[in-house]
User: What shape does this take?
Amino acid sequence: MTPPSPGSWHWLDRAGLQLVVDALRRQGHRVIGPQVADGAIVLRDLASVTDLPTGWLDDQDGGSYRLRHDPTAGTFDHVVGPHSLKNFLFPARETVASFARDDGTWTQAPRSAAESPLAVLGVRGCDLAALAVQDRVFLGSGYVDEAYKARRERLFLVAVNCRRAAATCFCHSMGCGPSAGPVFDLALTEIGNRFACEVGSDHGAAVLAAASEAGAVLAACTASEIDAAGAVPRDLGSRMHARQTVNDTPSPRSLDTHGIRDLLMRNLEHPQWDEVASRCLSCTNCTLVCPTCFCSSVQEVADLSGDQVDRERHWASCFSLDHARMHGQSVRSSTASRYRQWLIHKFATWIDQFDTSGCTGCGRCITWCPVGIDVTREIAAIRATDGAAAPETGRGTS
Assistant: This one.
């Protein structure tokens, strides 16, 4: 057997995939993987590959998510659910400091022991791209988030190349899929009842070697087999670009990103902001499921005695009134102004901040919006009337 090394490809069956999971658990990793729960495919602790959603598909559209069983579906033929890597690297709520009072003196408790390293199975190209975006936010902006850094440095990624798209997917428009990459430890392409496994790092090679020592049968992929595996996401991408029906699902979305920053910045008073505001509930769902949104707030939480206080960081959203509260009132009091803030930051000023868009085309904001607001259609509506007569200044956007 050719020993695993970065860049090598090996065939892996389901029993071998279980041995990969076992090897990671022996190394002390908390293994997370997709599973069916509460009517969705979510990321949760994984001990056995029998818990993976083999035979399940997700039908997604604006404001709609439904699971259906299909005995011909593979293990990873679902797309993305409401969870992403953000849920684990930048959790929705975490204690950042603890303080205790004893005889009138306050002391800060030492940091808790380090968490177990994470290994996440089934990560898609759009979420790997989102991880790169969050790395820039939390690690590359000059202000390092130490909690995120500690989790990120010990993260093990088992990526999956997509062979199916949902109607809400537009990763191809953002250059973020459907191929996984380029940063992963192992990447799987499902073909028949086995997986073509690409090794992406030394750690990935070591884990695959440990699985082999435990009994996993690894056969080196031939050059033609590697080409066939690479063609799976390439062919899907071609069909997505052509807006063709993919595996009996409605054709995926697309987004014209040409000059998108300048398009949005010169249309700050476009009437589309008021039109979308008439439908938007300001529920914050889109920011909660977005894999790149990073806004947070901090609050002190005391026990009933008042002698123990935890400082907690929790997710925040620019759709809430308090997010823009200054001098006792919100400076973005209308729904139109809050939606505009979110969309323009995601697709325009994020580029100014981080030299990249804040969107990876995963489509979650479309699927999980209760009223089915579609960001691709909102931007297309602005583009279609770009340069039209300017509306009344300030109309409904403050």
